[in-house]
Amino acid sequence: MKSLHTEILIAKHLKNSVFKNTAVFIIMLFIGLILLYAVLSGWKNYTSQNKTSEKHQHESREDWLKNPDKNPHRMAHYGNFAFRKSTPLSVFEFGMEPFFGNAIFLEAHKQNTANFSEAGFSSSMLRFGEISIAMVLQILMPLLIFFLGFNAVAAERENGTLKLLLSQGISWKQLLMGKILGIVSVIMMLFIPTILILVFIWLLLQNFTISADETIKMFLFILFHFIYLIFFCAIAVLISASGKTPKKALISLIGIWLVFTIILPRTTQAIGAYIYEAPSKIQFQSNIEKDILKQGDSHNPNDLHYKAIKDSLLSTYKVDSVQKLPFNYSGFIMTEGEKISSKIYNEHLEKLLTVYEKQNSFSKAVSFIDPYIAIKNLSMGLSNTDYDSYIDFQKKAEAYRYNMAQKMNALQVKYISNIKPGPNDKPLTIGKEHWADIAEFHYEPKGITDVLKSEIISVISIILWIIMLFVFIRIAAKNLKAI
Amino acid sequence: MLALLFKNFIRSKGTKIGLIFLLLICFISLLIGQQFQEKQQNNIVEAVNYQKKHIARNAAFHKDEMGLLLYYIKFSLINKTLPINSLSIGQRDVNPSIQSVTIRGLEGQKYDSELNNPNNLLSGNIDFSFVLIYLFPLLIIVFSYNLVSEEKESGTWKIVATQSGNTFLYILKLFYIRILSLIALLTIVLFIAVLFLNIPFDKSLLTFYIIGFLYILFWFAICFFIVSLHKNSNFNAVILLTIWLFLIIILPATINTYIVNQYPIPEALELTVKQRNAYHEKWDMDKKITMDQFYDHYPQFAHYPLPNTEFSWLWYYAMQQAGDDDSVKQSQELENKLEQRNRASQLIAQFVPTLHAQIQLNEIAKADLGNQLLFLKETKQFHEKMRLYFYSKIFDNADVSKENWSKFKVETFNDSSETSFSKAFLPLLIFNLALIGLGWMNFRKSKNYFF
Questions:
Q1: How many CB atoms lie under 10 A from the CB of residue A97?
Q2: Which residues of A touch B81 (CB under 8 A)?
Q3: Average pLDDT over chain A, rounded to an integer
Q4: A357 DSSP 8-state letter
Q5: Are B116 and B22 a contacting pair, CB within 8 Å?
Q6: Can you give the pTM of this predicted structure?
Q7: CB environment B115-131: b (16+ within 10 A), e (fewer)
Q8: What does the pLDDT look like over B102-133, one tens digit per residue?
Q9: Could you tell me whether strands A80-83 and B75-79 are parallel, antiparallel, or unpaired per DSSP bridges?
Q10: CA–CA separation, B37 and B197 (whole Å)
Q11: B 341-360 near A (Cβ less than 8 A)
């Protein structure tokens, strides 16, 4: 117990000396203000986005049900919308949300991409980033830690007090731990209030009814950010202890910060995108079209695939024309067309997503040396604003679209007569009660197990740093010299 | 003396590493620019080929019905990518540079997004403008934060002060050497870019160069001002980095968040929902309502009577038109909001040199929000032109084979808006002069302090 006492003493001393500096007060106040601004704007953003998407999801559902009796194929083209709602944690971590697009129009024979992303409607400013709690915790706080810690040991060395300390029987390990503890205690004065506000708002947004899943996500969000910040406190002290002068320590720390938060995230992603080139939309679509033409094009009256289907149907049912079939022929053909085109689309999409995965693999691997990338990926995962969540949403929307189109085709096959109405007859219709057969699109964000599964690299790398941290402190304690 | 100072500067290990590092990143940015340029060009080639085949194939399938054929055919409009765009990719990675539209309702097609890996968008491009705006300042800070303070701290300042008659001139020379080396770097990189990326020597390139020049000067002016305060090296380093952080990360991010919250665009979603309903509800309404609306919009087609059949292409396209016409309010509102966003960004940016430089470079490269808005407007006109050309052919059910389909080539939109010199340079110039003036005053005030 006695040894811990020493460390606390060192920590207290550091804390006191830090607050003698008025600049620290100003910086802390300033970061506090940014945090407040981040909370308010994140909140506003979240509520307005969810309000509009909820409103439209609701309205478009009503519109769907309100449709009068008509041919089910008309309904397949009337289509549905998939709107993306944000999760409560996304108030604090915007992640890729500004680049996602909020709505997908779901229509028969047509796979759409998500449209109306914030980025598409923004001026070039967006590229400087956005103020969010996560941004403050992940980018600004480490810098603050470095500003606080760069002379933690180096100043003592420069003043000559380091020798005194060590000669009084304090071990290097105690000194390092004490200094780290000191910086942590300063940082906690910002971190703890932030977390309290965070949790309060998070509860408020869910009307104080929280699910176990959300709670675990929130808990992990706090835990990992806590570890992340401790890691930077340790780095600051270690670099300060190994630097000859405070100035050299500061320059090294700034360099580390720059590499971690600005240079590495951009370069690794750029390398990935440079090596694995993804097709543009026009290439992507024309490739799909080529494959569909090869497989069978339901819009081409002379297509071989569809001619074969027609012939086999005619011979099975022993009739001489499609009009005499006991079910709606064109509905049957459209079912087949939708099946083929969706299959081909999904194959191409998988290929495209593999390219994206490869592009991202570089930066994922770098999370072992760059804690920023790991925490960024993890916190985006936990708040469902990461790449996987986006793909998940798109895939679920596409599954819904396919299901909707096929259900409409099935209704056509079953209820629509095979005899085409004459040019002046009323079109064939089915009753509007069928529209309710299609359930409303509802997107449920990925649960915690899926998130951890897809972010396993980040989790492992964070665990590795905790181990590394102790190893480094041990090595440093053995090898550091007072002069 | 100047030569000596220069030798002293360039011999330092830190200087060499810094310059080489920056040069290397500049090259990487040029490579990325080149890849971007190549991709854009490939897309255009692809779009041209695709359109040709696509039209020919559909024209062969749907020989009998002009209306059905035009239901399928897409026409592409290209937003011209200037070679200089490779230096400043801007918003061109988010916004598609090619719009492909059918003559059906426009509003449902206008905002179709490009395929993108959101991870790439999030981290952003390392184009040359990034290197210039983010990394050049850091090197400038490293080069000049300890210019006077280091000599004072090491005790050599007194020697310098007594040996050179005018210490202020000496300080200017120190800055002059550093400014010159970074301007040389900028010039070399841009010169290589001209050769490597085939950027023409024109007004755009000149504007780009001058903005880069003024931007570098701006950071030296800040350093000059901070040095003039006569604080110690540690203080200078921390304060300059704080300024960098503030101007590059905090302020732009805050302003962006402000603008997004200030001009929210719920109209975007409203627009599509409205357009879809406006079109689809017409199927179940009295045809006369749709037709009257259509004849009102286009009196020149009023002489086409509605055929006495359940379905006709005249009615179909009138319904599609109604989708656009009924959602015109939302469409206009969205356009206004985006213009407001653009104006607000430009206005605020004039007071934040980093933002100003970024926005100006993107504007020169025709990769800013303004260009996107013009492209959307042009898309609308292009769509209208195609519509008007084909409407009468559809309503007459003209012979598909009589149309010369090969004449429908991909069209290109050329954004001819000019950047005004005063708007581009004045804010940076004023900031520079103010900072240099303030620094100069500080030096004059503290003349006695030198000795």
A1: 30
A2: none
A3: 87
A4: H
A5: no
A6: 0.91
A7: bbbbbbbbbbbbbbbbb
A8: 999 998 888 888 888 999 988 888 999 999 99
A9: unpaired
A10: 8
A11: 341-342, 345-346, 349, 354-355, 358-359
pLDDT band at B448 (very low <50, low <70, confident <90, very high): low
d(CA B95, CA B331): 18
Q: Evaluate whether A58 touches A442 at the Cβ level (below 8 Å).
A: no
Please tell me the distance from the alpha carbon of residue B251 to that of residue B240, in angstroms, as a whole number.
15
pLDDT at res. B451: 44
Residues of B in contact with A48 (CB under 8 A): 264, 266
Rounded Cα–Cα distance for residues B443 and A4 (Å): 51
The dihedral built from the CA positions of residue A48, A49, A50 and A53, taken in this order, carries a sign that is positive
Q: Which of B57, B71, B107, B117 is the best mutation test for A, with the most CBs of A within 10 A?
A: B117
With a CB cutoff of 8 Å and minimum separation 6, the contacts of B104 are B71, B317, B320
Residues of A in contact with B234 (CB under 8 A): 246-247, 250
- Two tokens at B28? 């990487």
Q: What is the pLDDT of residue A293?
A: 84
Two structure tokens written together for A324: 């005499």
Q: Which of A41, A44, A143 sits opposite B245 (nearest CB)?
A: A143
Q: Choose between B100 and A245: higher pLDDT.
A: B100
How near does any CA of chain A get to the CA of B165, in Å? Answer: 31
Contact A122 B362 (CB under 8 A): no
- Residue whose pair of structure tokens reads 């509009």 in the numeric block: A52
Helices B136-144 and B233-245, packing angle to 10 deg? 170
CA distance A88 to chain B (A): 18
Give the chain A residue nearest B98 (alpha carbons): A282
- A118 touches B at CB < 8 Å: yes
Interface contact A66, partner B, CB < 8 A: no
Contact in structure between B247 and B352 (CB atoms under 8 Å) = yes
Chain A contact for B441, CB < 8 A? no
Distance CA A379, CA A372 (A): 10
Segment 123-142 of chain B within 8 Å of chain A by CB: 123-126, 130, 134, 138, 142
Of A423-427, A451-455, A467-471, B214-218, the poorest mean pLDDT is in: A423-427
Amino acid at B96: P
Q: How many CB pairs under 8 A join A and B?
A: 247
* Cβ proximity of B123 and A127 under 8 Å: no
- What's the rounded mean pLDDT across residues A467-480? 87
Sequence-distant contacts of A309-315: CB under 8 A, at least 24 apart: A309/A333, A309/A336
Q: Residue A425 pLDDT > 80, yes or no?
A: no
d(CA B403, CA B390): 11
